Amino acid sequence: MDIVYDGHTLVLHGAFDVRSTWEVRNAIYECIETFDDDVVIDMTDVSTIDATALRLLAVATRHAWLSGHHLTVRNPGPAVRRMAHLTRLAHALEVERAAATA
């Protein structure tokens, strides 16, 4: 898992699973605590995700909300959306999809 900081956006690349949750968690919480603005997690290049990683996103979303911020997941791919529905965590995430191009 590669994490790239782009302002208030964390861009994730690769497999987001139990092996990378601690690293991603630290990056998310650092952004929430550092910035007074909302945090976006760009998941365009996330190839796979597991239930542990989705639970981390759900808990971080709630933590951000309780801190007066928003944590938004941008453009989750089909594998991420499918796992979110299977684990019933889709309702716990704020999702922003990329605009369709004509």
Write up what this structure looks like.
- The chain is an alpha/beta fold and 102 residues long.
- The protein has one domain (2-96): Transcription Regulator spoIIAA, CATH 3.30.750.
- Helices cover 38% and strands 30% of the residues.
- It is built from three helices and five strands.
- It has helices spanning 21-34, 51-66, 78-86; strands at 2-6, 9-16, 39-49, 71-74, 94-96.
- It has a five-stranded mixed β-sheet.
- Helix 3 links the parallel strand 4 (71-74) and strand 5.
- Helix 1 runs parallel beside helix 2 (51-66).
- The longest helix has 16 residues, at 51-66.
- The protein is globular, with a radius of gyration of 12 Å.
- It starts with a strand and ends in a 6-residue tail after the last strand.
- The model has no long low-confidence stretch (mean pLDDT 91).
Determine the structural class based on helices, strands and strand pairing. alpha/beta
Instruction: State the helicity in percent bands.
Output: 25-40%
Which CATH top level class fits?
Alpha Beta
How many domains? Answer: 1
| Element-by-element helix/strand order | EEHEHEHE
- Which CATH-level-2 architecture? 2-Layer Sandwich
| Beta fraction | 25-35%
The strand line-up of the biggest sheet is 1-2-3-4-5
Contiguous helical run count: 3
Main sheet overview: 5 strands, mixed
Give the termini distance in whole angstroms.
Answer: 32 Å
C-alpha-based Rg, rounded = 12 Å
From the spread of the alpha carbons, the general shape counts as globular
Q: Could you list the spans in which at least 5 consecutive residues all have pLDDT below 50?
A: none
Number of strands: 5
Integer average pLDDT: 91
